[in-house]
Write a structure and sequence with these properties.
This protein is an alpha/beta fold. The chain has three domains: 109 residues, no CATH class; 41 residues; 244 residues. Helix content is 47%, strand content 17%. Strands 5-4-3-6-7 form a five-stranded mixed sheet, sandwiched between helices. It has a two-stranded antiparallel ribbon with strand order 1-2. The radius of gyration is 31 Å and the shape is elongated. The N terminus is likely disordered.
């Protein structure tokens, strides 16, 4: 690792130095003014610390027969936000001097850790981070060092994943996103299970992210049990995709919860079995079902749909009829609430943000590596969640009436 030689700067002539700065590189570059100013300023502070430690200034007569004196300087390379440079730290003969500004054996005075974690969170690869730090600061950072720094995040992940949760979440969206992960020498498709809750104040909150093999109802059951162990006592409405056994897994842990299967998922699954030449006509008829103003009207339109298309596509029609109890939950609510719960789009939007961050990585080396980047992405994404869900005042008032005794409002 090489260190740039830095020409000393006279602190009394900063104005003259500033006049000579013509570009940003002159100011913040590898041998720029700020880097040289930082070096000289720090060395002066260290000298002042030595004066205080010894009780007298350099060359002062007070130092004679004082029992301790200066003993040259120690030179070491330190990393800063403006790059690396050589810093001279004064020594005393007894070795009693303990600098405060830059401690013994400390070689990093930058916020590189935060910068590296931030770049990692934005989806930059290790190579991207290496090149960026070298171009911007003239610092060579090894892949091992980057991994070591980002691994510090795992303790935060553990703490976040086990934090206490609210007793009540009026709405919770459950969904999973899939990635390729290396495990025991094999490349596996793994699911990142995501729970997105809306609390009683209408604020969105990611309750947790879990990495597991293959999306399955038994895994969701374990997640629901964990949510209960972390303090969740009640969920009013759970919005889920069409995974078989999923509603039963939720009801097992939260028996009072209403289930709403995602209408959009159901439509997509249905269209897979409809010939392309009939899809437009079929969708026109199906729209009469899920856009109906009441459940009674929807049932009538579903019957009409079956009479028209049942012979040609019996599996599609039977699927809607079989799942109707959980597909029709949203009909009992006004339009403003229907728009929130009829689809898992809220959590899918979150997953689209995850995709933006992970698009440069076709394969993750471990579950921990995947969880690490999703957690960091979560921190960035949730910073923007400053407002409650639209029309939440009306929504929670409706819930207070419909779920009397389960929703307690502080008025």
């Amino acid at each position: 690792m090489t260190t740039d030689k830095i020409d000393p700067i006279d602190l009394d002539n900063i104005q003259n130095e500033l006049k000579n700065c013509r570009t940003m590189d002159d100011l913040t570059g590898k041998n720029g003014l700020l880097k040289r100013l930082l070096k000289d300023t720090m060395e002066k502070i260290l000298e002042a610390e030595m004066n205080e430690s010894l009780g007298y200034k350099k060359y002062s007569a007070e130092g004679k027969n004082s029992g301790n004196s200066r003993n040259g300087k120690t030179c070491k390379t330190v990393k800063s936000d403006f790059g690396e440079f050589s810093l001279e730290t004064p020594r005393d003969r007894k070795g009693e001097f303990e600098p405060v500004l830059v401690k013994k054996r400390q070689t990093d005075i930058s916020s590189f850790d935060e910068k590296i974690i931030s770049m990692y969170a934005k989806g930059m690869t290790v190579r991207d981070i290496q090149d960026h730090l070298n171009d911007l600061y003239g610092v060579d950072v090894s892949p091992t060092m980057i991994s070591t720094i980002t691994d510090k995040v795992m303790s935060l992940v553990t703490e976040w994943q086990s934090r206490p949760l609210h007793a009540l979440y009026p709405i919770v969206f459950f969904d999973a996103i899939h990635y390729k992960v290396r495990s025991e020498g094999k490349v596996l498709s793994k699911a990142a299970y995501t729970c997105l809750g809306v609390d009683i104040h209408g604020r969105k909150e990611i309750l947790g992210i879990w990495i597991g093999e293959n999306e399955g109802a038994h895994y969701w059951l374990a997640i629901c049990n964990e949510l209960r162990n972390r303090g969740v006592e009640d969920i009013l409405i759970a919005c889920v995709d069409g995974l078989k056994g999923f509603p039963d897994a939720i009801i097992t842990v939260f028996p009072k919860t209403e289930i709403q299967l995602c209408i959009i998922h159901m439509i997509r699954n249905s269209l897979k079995y409809i010939a392309s030449k009939y899809q437009k006509e079929f969708m026109g008829d199906l729209k009469m079902v899920y856009k109906a103003p009441t459940e009674e009207k929807a049932r009538l339109e579903l019957k009409n749909l079956g009479q028209k298309w049942g012979d040609r596509y019996p599996l599609v029609i039977k699927s809607w009829e079989k799942n109707w109890t959980n597909l029709s939950t949203y009909f009992k609510y006004p339009d403003s609430i229907r728009r929130i719960i009829y689809t898992t789009n809220a959590v899918e939007a979150l997953h689209r943000q995850f995709r933006k961050v992970t698009k440069n990585r076709s394969l993750f080396p471990s579950d921990e590596a995947l969880l690490k980047i999703l957690f960091l992405a979560t921190r960035d994404i949730t910073k923007k969640w400053t407002m409650p869900v639209r029309d939440w005042g009306f929504t929670i008032s409706q819930f207070a009436v419909m779920f009397e005794g389960r929703v307690i409002l502080d008025i």
